[in-house]
Amino acid sequence: xxVLVTGGAGYIGSHTVVELLQAGHSVVVVDNLCNGSExxxxxxEKITGxxxxxxxxxxxxRQAMDGVFSRHDIETVIHFAGLKAVGESVSRPLDYxxxxxxxxxxxxxxxxxxxxxxxxxxxxxxVYGEEAPVPYVETMPRGxxxxxxxxxxxxxxxxxxxLVSANARWSVVLLRYFNPIGAHPxxxxxxxxxxxxxxxxxxxxxxxxxxxxxxxxxxxxxxTADGTCERDYLHVVDLALGHLKALPxxxxxxxxxxxxxxxxxxxxxxMVNSFMRVTGVDVPYLITSxxxxxxxxxxxxxxxxxxxxxxxAERGLDDMLMDTWRWQxxxxxxxx
Length: 336
Ligand code: NAD
Ligand code: WQD
Known about the structure:
Blueprint: E1 2-6, H1 11-22, E2 26-31, H2 38-48, E3 53-56, H3 62-71, E4 76-79, H4 86-91, H5 93-114, E5 118-124, H6 148-166, E6 171-177, E7 179-181, H7 200-208, E8 215-218, E9 230-231, E10 233-235, H8 236-246, E11 254-260, E12 266-267, H9 268-279, E13 285-288, H10 303-309, H11 317-330
Parallel strand pairs: 1-2, 1-4, 2-3, 4-5, 5-6, 6-11, 7-10, 8-13
Antiparallel strand pairs: 9-12
The structure holds nicotinamide-adenine-dinucleotide and UDP-4-deoxy-4-formamido-beta-L-arabinopyranose.
């Protein structure tokens, strides 16, 4: 299948491009490189031995997107491109609604004009909102999101549902990711945050490699077993493989929604202790106050993806941590 991957030079996109190429699909990447790297594309070529067709373009640029669809015979779009930093979305809401919501709107307009109506969208567990009981199941309604990032994801889901209702020739798969971590086992691809990492895993890795003095654990007074927050961490390669498993689903008309997670919550303290055990490297930490907006614990009901797509997250926590560490050691400053 010929697949257009928007955001293919980013963290999850680059891992997905590897799996698509290795499975024999043909790939075109569109990325504006605002948070991705051309080095990641070179590394994909190194891993797969195949060349990557790359167009540096912004999904908000209708003319550029029309050009992509007219020059390439695209059958399906996997849409990763967007901004993803929750805290930044609070201070820059316009950028988030523009990139994530308006960007998807323009992409869909270009797709409609080109007669390409199959889309796999990178959604997030955050759309379940603040009040949802765990585990999160796809049949639950979207909840109240607490930041513009989450709201932009919920808005895109609704936009895509409305599009499918209006035109039965569209088919859309909404993939709700939980907490992707880890890196390609080669050590050549991984997460490359700009500045101080917001997320736990890259922060732990940067402390371990000596780039930061210590980790702050945001609160140990949550109603969980050890008092720290629990999340459903999954290996980015498993997540990438979830997109391949979702490709047949996007051949059927309508909207389908799948959680991509392991179905298990792991606490922050367990993450830090497991990292130290697996790598043998010390990670100094300090318990600090809670981070605004953090939920105590959530994880996926991963049953639907298993039953309908035949997908389960197969890589365990030790693999996620070891692969992160290999990537961090080989690339202490990421792709820079
Ligand atoms: P990332 O920032 O590494 O990758 C996103 C890519 O999109 C980058 O390469 C960036 O340059 C590109 N991009 C951004 N805006 C663009 C635009 N307007 N036009 C063209 N390219 C643009 O992020 P990621 O972690 O790989 O996330 C991929 C997708 O998955 C995002 O939509 C994100 O919201 C979603 N998601 C991520 C997580 C996570 O924890 N990483 C969890 C749930 C959902
Ligand atoms: C995990 C846990 C923190 C950093 C975010 C988005 C979510 C999704 C994934 C896109 C929390 C704790 C963290 C640190 C810490 N992204 N922590 N010290 O918040 O579950 O999810 O990324 O869709 O929408 O909200 O992930 O990695 O930031 O935090 O103690 O320095 O680690 O409090 O409990 P989160 P995270």
